């Protein structure tokens, strides 16, 4: 009986994932059963109330009727891997709450899986580990609440801590939540300063709805995530630099310190890196880190700084640099 019930769930899952009619032969091939078994299972599912449409004939088949999507169905083996990997990644990225135990959540998922999928899921949960750096934790409740206010377009009054100092209460219009590296940001329009601003979610100490809806504003760019990363990487700094690298954006991803750069693809073999820091010396360290050829696009002062640094490095390598004092 348990096997037959599992087959029924698998048939529903296959129909759920397809918008086209599936023939009995296609379903039988996917599930490793006979077409006769498929027809019997379909008949039983119809009998207990599932809205399955059927079309007879050689080109006919079965599909779930409009509005008959099933809320909870058996995921495929690859989908199970994605779910478990997502749970591990959430914990590694600092998504925490007192009532969330990621290991317990994983075990709950494993308990409801059929035996044929459980062994693969167990392998993943037991033998895959995630590095968890010492990063701030972000409340899952905060993410849920902020996402709700984004949907409702509800003005929020928030208190926020920046550099260890709590700022005065602010009225903001929440637009999007952006996850970058290990941190979560709220992109919002600040009504007092009349500008877009990014707030680290873990630094929002309180929030409440101001009972006033707002009209959605247009971002300076269409990409909220790109706008956020670019602003975080460059806006706070007086020294901003653009450099063209002889590598694709995908190849450079992960080559820089978190939140230090914004990478913009040019083509499959080159990209532009936008970055900023408190000095050109720090920017130079960022740009040299990947070990990939690059050229400075902006500003000219950075080109001169690189030339001066190259001369000093060359002198140091040749042993001709003065033993003390600064080189003229």
From TrEMBL:
Domain HTH iclR-type span(s) in chain numbering: 2-66
Example GO biological process: regulation of DNA-templated transcription
Pfam families: HTH_11, WCX, WYL
GO MF terms, alphabetically ordered: DNA binding
InterPro entries assigned: CBASS_pafABC_assoc_protein, HTH_11, Tscrpt_reg_IclR_N, WCX_dom, WH-like_DNA-bd_sf, WH_DNA-bd_sf, WYL_dom
Protein name: WYL domain-containing protein
């Amino acid at each position: 009986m348990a096997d037959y019930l599992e087959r029924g769930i698998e048939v529903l899952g296959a129909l759920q994932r397809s918008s086209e009619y599936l023939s009995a032969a296609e379903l039988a091939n996917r599930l490793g059963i006979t077409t006769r078994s498929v027809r019997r299972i379909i008949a039983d599912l119809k009998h207990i109330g599932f809205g399955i449409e059927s079309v007879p004939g050689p080109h006919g088949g079965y599909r779930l009727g409009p509005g008959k999507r099933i809320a909870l169905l058996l995921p495929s083996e690859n989908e199970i891997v994605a779910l478990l990997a997502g749970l591990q990644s959430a914990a590694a990225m600092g998504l925490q709450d007192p009532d969330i135990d990621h290991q317990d959540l994983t075990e709950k998922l494993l308990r409801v899986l059929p035996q044929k999928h459980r062994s693969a899921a167990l392998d993943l949960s037991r033998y895959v580990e995630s590095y968890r750096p010492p990063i701030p934790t972000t409340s899952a409740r905060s993410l849920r609440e902020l996402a709700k206010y984004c949907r409702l377009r509800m003005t929020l009054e928030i208190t926020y801590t920046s550099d260890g100092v709590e700022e005065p209460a602010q009225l903001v219009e929440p637009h999007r939540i952006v996850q970058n590296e290990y941190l979560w940001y709220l992109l919002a329009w600040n009504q007092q300063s009349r500008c877009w601003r990014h707030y680290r979610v873990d630094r929002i100490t309180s929030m409440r709805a101001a009972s006033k809806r707002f009209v959605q504003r247009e971002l300076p760019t269409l990409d909220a995530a790109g706008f956020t990363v670019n602003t975080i990487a460059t806006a706070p700094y007086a020294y901003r630099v653009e450099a063209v690298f002889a590598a694709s954006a995908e190849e450079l991803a992960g080559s820089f310190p978190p939140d230090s750069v914004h990478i913009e693809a040019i083509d499959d073999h080159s990209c532009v890196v936008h970055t900023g820091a408190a000095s050109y010396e720090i920017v130079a360290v960022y740009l040299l880190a990947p070990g990939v050829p690059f050229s400075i696009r902006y500003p000219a002062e950075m080109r001169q700084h690189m030339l001066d640094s190259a001369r000093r490095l060359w002198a140091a390598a040749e042993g001709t640099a003065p033993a003390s004092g600064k080189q003229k």
